[in-house]
Amino acid sequence: PGLFERFMEVLSEMPIKYFWFCRAVPQTPMADEDALFSIENLRRLLSHPLVRSLGEITRWQDVIKGDPKIMEIVRIAQGLGKRGDGHTAGAKYDQLNVISRAGVTSCHEGIMAQESLDRLRLGLYVFLRESALRQDLADLLQVVTRDKVSTRRVMLTTDCSSPAFYDQHGVTDHILEIALREGVDPIRAYQMVTLTPAVYYGMDHDLGGIAPGRYADILILKDLCNPRPETVISKGKIIAQGGRITEPFPKMDWDRFF
């Protein structure tokens, strides 16, 4: 106990910020999951300020059945003010209704605009996804451009893509390029990757905007239609300029953890 928390804290010494979610159960059943994913272990991790949500809850069928352990950890997360991120691939409208009522607050698994619209109507936040495995964002954005929904509960995600994908395409600059190309208003597009996630995870007092008392994390752009930053400021320091790192990353003692 405590080693993983220290790992999270050491990563926070880097120029960029890392925040985490904590699974309620493994993605698929495993032999020793009751010990590893015990209520005590999950409560401890969820209590850490760097852990911002319980998720992603992949076994949504167990949520519908009212699995007592999952429901208990959802209640603990709610008591700590943490979100419950869902993974509701394949769930129908009536099933999503139960999942939303059970305390799941978001989903990133819509692959068509109508599926995202269904989730929004049931009170969920939605993450519209463009990832190494699924390139759906252009179609999903119709929920904004065609259906004209408010984007206050809509975010964009790359859903834990591979390093090679990020090396080739970029991260939020890539998904912003798609949003702008599909006709999303630039201000709304930028809000979907800055302010809205900060509000959703209860961190807008620190992140998501340029204002007194917030972290001095600023991307300087040539213009709103070109989301690849010319200068990156993190924690008040210029860490990259013209596509090159200017601030050395700290040395990590990986052997301590692996």
How does this structure look, described?
The protein is an alpha/beta fold. Helices cover 36% and strands 15% of the residues. The protein has 13 helices and ten strands. The protein has helices at residues 3-11, 33-36, 39-46, 60-64, 68-79, 93-101, 113-121, 137-140, 142-145, 163-169, 172-181, 186-191, 195-200, and strands spanning 20-22, 51-57, 83-86, 106-107, 125-129, 154-157, 218-220, 231-234, 237-241, 244-245. It has a six-stranded parallel beta sheet with strand order 1-2-3-4-5-6. Helix 3 runs parallel beside helix 5. It is globular. The protein starts with a helix and ends in a 13-residue tail after the last strand. 30% of the residues are buried.
Biggest sheet statistics: 6 strands, parallel
| Class based on secondary structure composition and strand pairing | alpha/beta
For the record, give the distance between the C-alpha atoms at the N and C termini, rounded to a whole number. 15 Å
| Spatial sequence of strands, sheet with the most strands | 1-2-3-4-5-6
Helix content: 25-40%
Helical run tally: 13
Which parts are unreliable, with pLDDT below 50 for 5 consecutive residues or more? Answer: none
Q: From the alpha carbons, calculate the radius of gyration and give it in angstroms.
A: 19 Å
**How many beta strands in the DSSP annotation?**
10
Please, what is the oligomeric state?
single chain
**Proportion of residues in extended strands:** 15-25%
Instruction: Tell the overall outline.
Output: globular
Summarize the helix and strand pattern as letters. HEHHEHHEHEHEHHEHHHHEEEE
